[in-house]
Design brief:
Elements (H helix, E strand, L loop, with lengths): L10 H5 L10 H4 L1 H13 L6 E5 L10 E10 L3 E10 L14 H13 L6 E5 L10 E6 L4 E6 L11 E7 L20 E7 L23 E3 L2 E3 L4 H13 L1
Parallel strand pairs: 5-8
Antiparallel strand pairs: 1-4, 1-7, 2-3, 3-6, 5-6, 7-8, 9-10
Helix pairs in contact: 3-4
Length: about 240
């Protein structure tokens, strides 16, 4: 029997998750396993809000903190998402009801257990208002101990990252798989891609300088790339830094 437990993840448990750089090769190393897990989503006709997620972390949390996703509206650009640690007392959201999908959960857990995928792949269950077909790219925002997720079509940091890895996948129908994609490291059938840098190549990361009006007076470091004032990307990151962190 398999079940889901609705509870906040203790900080020590979250901190035990593998860092993104330690599981970056998992989608390729376990391509057949990931394919089988994705096919389960269609086989059991699970809600659209359920997807396969690469289990990873970017930053540790402190005692009393949890990592949360949030959305920020950027004037002229649309919606961006962030993930950040916050202190908590109570939190709730309306997610798809999985009470009638025990056979799916049982089969999913069996594959994860038998194939030693426990710290590689898990499930993400999104609230209904999170459902979309937009592709996201996430970048580490070291200054605020968080990540920023930008929609396809938004300005992105220029320059190379240490590695690029897909971190979320929806159901798989048939044999369409990353090997058919034009990109070598990014699965075009996934939902979220992480462009990761283990350190900032542009300059030493320091706390951003904020003036009296709440605007940043210095450059940001996003995903290991320097984001300079006067650019559209800088305006986006500055809005997020002021409003969401």
């Amino acid at each position: 029997m398999a079940s889901l437990t609705e509870t906040l993840v203790p900080f020590a448990t979250y901190n035990s998750l593998p860092h993104i750089r330690d599981v970056a090769n998992a989608p390729e190393d376990h391509a057949d396993d990931l394919k089988d897990l994705r096919q389960l989503l269609d086989k059991h006709k699970v809600p659209k809000g359920v997807s396969i997620r690469l289990i990873h972390k970017h930053f540790d949390t402190k005692d009393g903190e949890v990592m949360i996703f949030d959305k920020v509206t950027i004037l002229g650009h649309g919606i961006a998402q962030i993930m950040k640690p916050v202190a908590y007392e109570y939190s709730s959201h309306v997610a798809p009801d999985m009470a009638n999908f025990e056979p799916f959960l049982t089969e999913f857990c069996a594959i994860v257990s038998k194939r030693n995928l426990r710290f590689k792949f898990g499930l993400r269950i999104k609230a209904e208002d999170e459902l979309d077909n937009v592709g996201w790219t996430e970048f580490e925002f070291h200054e605020k101990r968080g990540t920023i997720m930008l929609q396809d079509g938004m300005p992105m940091p220029e320059g190379d990252s240490d590695f690029t890895v897909s971190t979320e996948w929806k159901k798989l129908i048939g044999d369409v798989w990353p090997r058919d994609c034009k990109h070598t490291k990014t699965c075009c059938h996934g939902a979220t891609t992480c462009k990761h840098c283990t350190y900032c190549k542009a300059y030493d990361v320091e706390e951003c300088g904020i003036d009296k009006e709440g605007s940043c007076t210095e450059a940001f470091c996003l995903g290991g790339q320097r984001v300079l004032p006067g650019t559209s990307l800088f305006d986006i990151v500055n809005t997020i830094a002021v409003q969401a962190f």
